[in-house]
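S.,

Sequence below, as promised.
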Amino acid sequence: MVKLITVERAKKEVQRLQHFIDLAESYESDTLNKWTIKEYAYTNSIKKVVEKANTESLTVKGEPLSREYAVAVINGKANDELHRILRRGYRLKIKPNKRKY
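The prediction came back faster than expected:
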């Protein structure tokens, strides 16, 4: 079933999405943590972020980037707006899975 939408709500949604796109495209990935955040914004997948880091030979203290490290970065304290948005989305995404354990 399709949820009905008003023109006003549609305009707000377009503005919200455009703001997210602008944040992601202008995000400077000058550190490994920021690179991880930016890649997660584009893929929305921890697995894909880790795979891309390993194909680009990015390392953490000489070790390949691990899933645990990427999760810790995304779930860590948000220092900027893009990170805050992604952290909230990640937590909402994993929330149903927490009940299984």
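The radius of gyration is 16 Å.

Coffee later?
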